[in-house]
Design a protein that fits this description.
Structural class: alpha+beta
Largest sheet: 19 strands, mixed
Mean pLDDT: 84
Low-confidence stretches: 1-17, 196-205, 448-452, 458-468
Helix content: 10-25%
Number of strands: 44
Shape: globular
Strand content: 35-45%
């Protein structure tokens, strides 16, 4: 009996017969309308046509009114009765005729679109809070077509079944539960794609709300700040049943990243969104979004969406479409948000009465709405603000974490990647196109070949255990030793492990990192590292071990190694290699130390505090350049300098300010301590499956640092105390416009015995390449010339502009370019008002938005010194 039951369960999807409607949606001229919306009136049931205009919708037997919609066309309603067969309905839609309201256009001073949009903007937050909770089933189909693949990726992508002109298809079906104010629970029922069968859809939460202030980092036309960024134009209205729908053209004051353009349709009196067709641009890619809303329990909700983006990035050119169909159930509307609130445009008409502060604090929203009957946009914003304040206080009293901006949880069904074709044919709401069907057949055959190859390779490996992979030995590989253990091996020929300097000659490094993973993202590791200096014929190395959790960690490192005099490593080994061998500039200065260091970190203590630090004991040795070192290219104007930094403060104490008075030191022991405490108030975060993901915080970050040289113990020769206070803040000053500043001030309270490696150093740069943190790094400051053991003040300010000089030109702005103005300042006893004033342009190379070029003017004591040019990226790397 059990066998019969299992067989019946397994074959049920094949035996099930689904009825409903199917057909095509076209224009009156017979042209397909891709991604047209098909909705069942009075319900949230519906679907979207595919790119060919074909649709299918499964329905239970019964009578229905089916509404066919497409933006710019007149909606058509058909009455049908479904029995025991699928009905074919081929639909032809006519273009929507608009009526111009003569009363509205009578005003000579202002376009009537503004009074509509002021009310819609005032009521946006109202509509965002209307729904208390819902359950929904989301079907998402993503399809893409890569038109150009750069030469360096053709071979590797072809092995994965990705080729120019072959569609990439990705489908997923999810159940979503939403609860105000910010909780989304998702269960992925099924997912299928033409790539890796184990991959989960990346589109699981493409649910943008234009009632919010921003959508995808662009300002919504319904944002409270919308009138700052947009102009609006009334294009007419049309009737849809008992409703009047206004068509508004959205015109950005300067089009580019961070703003939309297109059309938005607003329902008269309720001022809710009926539908929209908007586009924007981001990093050179064109982005378009179409949404159709339908009423459910008096609330207009998005039921179908189409997202399209196309363009070029990193040499890839293509177009991708996401079609989303949402079916709601268990919808609960907040009783406080009733649609009979009449919103007046205060610029035209004032409300008959005002709301007292007492009523605002003591009465509920629905009571105020009943009392006022009509409110201005300003009054409604006050009411909603007070409502959200009271709601926040209530949640706080119930011990809810009110700093959570959004809480997401995703559970993937165990059968999500194993559903068969019969299941998909029944549950799919958007039919596959012919090309998409062929793509699935191709990917299935590629997957079968790959599985067969993996099995063959596995069998071969078992037969021949002596198989030797030379490239893995030279470059590295990660080995999975067990479910908890893995081994990360870095070979000597990795770019960061193979270098050259004038002290050691060619250097090879290699490491083994044994990592043990525990629950809740806790890891334990043991990492031996070896470093062989070919020129010195010396083998150095370290051994590190430690434990790292999500918020805290501890590590212990010891051995014999080389270090830069600035512990923040101002120049990377790879850049120093190029500068040394090609330009005869040996900027990196190093010394050797035998050391042991114990370090710790505790991040986000109470979500606003972080503390880190360490204690180190070591013996330090000076190193000299190798004899007869020669670069690949000899330059008459350059020459290698000794492996000893030039420092003005040290030379001043020796009464020798000549550039050849380099710093030297004798071998010595040093016991040092460093601690940093950072406070960043107002931290917000998102929850993802119960784990916190901290969001960008516009509040300033304050850090107090203390460094101590401890004398006597272990014959330690250092004796100093240094304190420092830092403040840093990153602010959004407008759409795609930012202000970044950082200020540090400090002093040595005691400097009885300070070696150069214990000085306060600054992140200088003398190479043509910019790397590291672009906001807090000097562009042309010598690496060690102005390092100090006294007092100092350091400041950095960068303003990122979306529209400044070149970006005033629309073509430049649409290409995704950004302009930067920056000032970097340093004051020490030896650096008298060292200042850099710079201009940078990001995204100069099409398809590479992170590439930047800079021009910097350098001033000493407010007198012009020289001009420098730099190239780099907007990424933070290198230290």
């Amino acid at each position: 009996m059990r066998i019969i039951f299992l067989l019946f369960w397994a074959f049920t999807p094949l035996l099930a017969v689904a009825f409903g409607i199917k057909g095509t949606v076209k224009t009156s001229k017979g042209e397909p309308l891709p991604y047209a919306t098909i909705a069942i009136k009075g319900t949230s049931t519906g679907t979207i046509a595919n790119a060919e205009g074909r649709y299918e919708l499964t329905l239970a037997p019964g009578k229905y009114e089916v509404v066919f919609q497409y933006l710019g066309f007149k909606a058509l309603t058909k009455s049908i009765e479904v029995s025991n067969e699928t009905i074919t309905l081929n639909i032809a839609l006519e273009e929507q005729a608009l009526t111009i309201n003569e009363v509205r256009i009578g005003s000579k001073s202002e376009d009537p679109a503004y009074t509509i949009m002021r009310r819609a903007i005032a009521k946006a937050r109202f509509h965002a809070l209307q729904v208390q909770s819902y359950n929904a089933r989301a079907y998402i189909k993503s399809s893409g077509l890569i038109k150009n693949i750069p030469f360096y990726a053709v071979g590797s992508l072809k092995k994965e079944g990705i080729e120019e002109g072959r569609p990439i298809v990705n489908e997923s079906v999810s159940e979503i539960r939403f609860k105000q104010p910010n909780t989304y629970n998702q269960r992925v029922i099924s997912t299928r794609n033409t790539l890796n069968q184990d991959a989960i859809s990346p589109n699981a939460f493409i649910m943008a709300s234009f009632y919010n202030a921003t959508v995808g980092n662009a300002v919504s036309p319904l944002s409270p700040k919308a009138l700052t960024y947009y102009k609006f134009e009334y294009q007419g209205s049309f009737r849809e049943g008992d409703l009047e729908v206004n068509k508004i053209k959205v015109i950005p004051k300067s089009y580019g990243e961070g703003v939309f353009r297109g059309q938005i349709y607003i329902i008269e009196n309720t001022w809710a969104i009926h539908s929209l067709d908007l586009e924007t641009t981001a990093e050179g890619l064109d982005f378009q979004m179409k949404q159709v809303y339908n009423p459910l329990q008096g609330v207009w909700l998005p039921t179908t969406s189409r997202i399209r983006f196309a363009g070029s990035l990193l040499g890839f050119t293509g177009e991708f479409n996401h079609a989303i169909s949402l079916t709601y159930n268990d919808l609960k509307v907040n009783p406080a948000f009733v649609e009979n609130v009449v919103v007046l445009d205060e610029k035209i008409e004032k409300p008959s009465s005002d709301i007292s502060k007492k009523d605002l604090r003591t009465k509920k929203l629905n009571e105020l709405a009943a009392q006022q009957k009509e409110v201005s946009g300003k009054q409604l914003r006050k009411m909603l603000k007070e409502y959200e304040k009271q709601d926040r206080n209530e949640r706080k009293a119930q011990k809810e974490d009110v700093n959570v901006v959004r809480s997401d949880s995703i559970v993937i069904d165990s059968m999500a990647n194993k559903r068969n074709d019969a299941f998909w044919n029944e549950i799919r709401t958007i039919p596959l196109t012919e090309l998409e069907t062929k793509s699935y057949h191709h990917s299935d055959s590629v997957r079968v070949i790959k599985v067969a190859k993996i099995k063959a390779d596995s069998t071969k490996a078992k037969k021949d255990s002596t198989n030797f992979d030379l490239m893995a030995l030279l470059s590295g590989r990660t080995f999975k030793l067990s479910k908890q253990w893995r081994l990360e091996y870095e070979g000597p020929l990795r770019l960061q492990n193979f270098s050259y300097n004038t002290v050691e000659g060619y250097v090879l490094e290699s490491s083994l990192n044994f990592i043990r993973r525990f629950k809740q993202a806790n890891t334990f590791y043991i990492k031996p590292l070896g470093r062989y200096a070919i020129g010195r014929r010396e083998l150095l190395g370290t051994l590190s071990t430690g434990w790292q959790g999500r918020r805290r960690g501890i590590s212990l490192t010891g051995g014999r190694y080389v270090a830069q005099f600035n512990p923040e490593n101002p120049i990377s080994p790879s850049i120093n290699t190029s500068a040394t061998l090609l330009f005869e500039n040996n900027y990196m200065k190093i010394y050797e130390k035998e050391f042991g260091r114990l370090a710790f970190n505790y991040a986000r203590l109470a979500d606003v505090l972080s503390i880190s630090g360490g204690i180190e004991f070591g013996r330090r040795y000076a190193l000299e350049n190798l004899e007869n070192q020669r670069p690949w290219i000899r330059w008459n104007q350059y020459a290698f300098t000794p492996n000893a930094p030039y420092n003005r403060e040290h030379s001043h104490r020796l009464n020798a300010l000549e550039a050849d008075s380099y710093y030297t030191f004798a071998p010595h022991n040093a016991l040092t301590l460093d601690v940093a405490l950072t406070w960043k108030p107002g931290q917000k975060y998102r929850l993802y499956n119960g784990r916190k993901r901290y969001l960008e915080n516009n509040n300033p970050s304050l850090t107090l640092r203390y460094a101590k040289g401890i004398p006597t113990i272990g014959n330690s020769a250092v004796d100093y105390d240094r304190v420092e206070f830092d403040i840093r803040q990153d602010l959004e000053t407008g759409i795609k416009s930012e202000l970044h500043y950082a200020v540090s001030a400090g002093a040595f309270l005691n400097r009885r015995s300070v070696y150069l490696m214990d000085y306060k150093h600054f992140m200088g740069n003398r190479t043509f390449i910019l790397y590291g943190d672009s906001y807090t790094r000097f562009r042309s400051l010598p690496f060690y010339e102005y390092s100090t053991s006294e007092r100092y003040l350091e400041a950095h300010v960068t303003n990122v502009y979306r529209r400044f000089l070149l970006t005033r030109l629309p073509l430049v702005r649409l290409a995704g370019l950004k302009e930067n103005l920056m000032v970097h300042y340093l004051l020490t006893p030896m650096a008298k008002h060292y200042t850099e004033v710079g201009y940078a342009l990001d995204g100069l190379i099409p398809g590479f938005p992170f590439f930047r070029v800079e021009a910097i003017a350098v001033f000493n004591n407010f007198k012009y010194d020289h001009t420098a040019f730099r190239v780099g990226t907007t990424f933070k790397f290198g230290n």
